[in-house]
Amino acid sequence: MQIRRLTSADVPACQELSADRGWLREDRRWALLIELAEVYGIDAADGGLAGAVTLTRYDTHAAIGMMLVAARYERQGFGRALMSRALAAAGGPVCLRATDNGRPLYEQLGFATDGSSVTYVGTLSGPRPDLPPTRPAWPTDLPEILRLDADAFGADRSRLLRRLAGFGRLRIAAGGYGASWRNGAHNLLGPVVADDVATAMALCTDLADGPIRLDISSYQPEFEAWAADRLERGARVSLMSTGGTPPGDVKRLFTPFTVATD
């Protein structure tokens, strides 16, 4: 079973693999991950990809995501091979988000559950009373956004955020910032970093435009309750790590960049 590094030419095959497992096709996320992270795949004998996984490195840890094996290749060792490759490449602490289907394998590989995350989708509605003001971010705000992010995330993800500034919408507030970017049929709201829940709500409200997606961890019960009143609840996944829990202040990390990069 040969594992290779995927390239931009493999984006359509990655989308087909996602669709095979009932996931969204997410052309922008796959393209972004192939550009800025490491995406490993196994070619299928009958065409396309038998499986794929992504690895995003930071200066303190790494994140694994998009762990997918085509249905016709299940239980043949492809998932374990891809995970072993990604873990070897990471060479240190790793975090990921696990479906119920994938969690047993991750536990066998030494991952422990740290919490959970729920997806919410729909059109954000409801009043905006007494929420802090936000404003569009300008290029001159990028250093402050990078500072806020590094302080809350506990690692340098400036490469991702600089790229995001080129195609997403960013807003800034006192003690926080948020981003929105198109990914398939939804605008993904993330990352959202804020000193308090009211600022996170304000950023999401002001960024929302059409159908949106929020991924909210169990560390944010008040924020999740607010989203649950306004959006449709989707799947719950487990937050897992090995080699130590990721750094950062979970109380200020309201949504991830993506569930693949955390």
UniProtKB/TrEMBL annotation:
Pfam families, per database record: Acetyltransf_18 (PF18014), Acetyltransf_7 (PF13508)
Stretches assigned to the N-acetyltransferase domain: 1-138
Superkingdom of origin: Bacteria
Gene Ontology MF: a single term: acyltransferase activity, transferring groups other than amino-acyl groups
InterPro entries, A to Z: Acyl/Acetyltrans_Enzymes, Acyl_CoA_acyltransferase, GNAT_dom, YitH/HolE_GNAT
Protein name: Acetyltransferase
Organism: Actinocatenispora sera
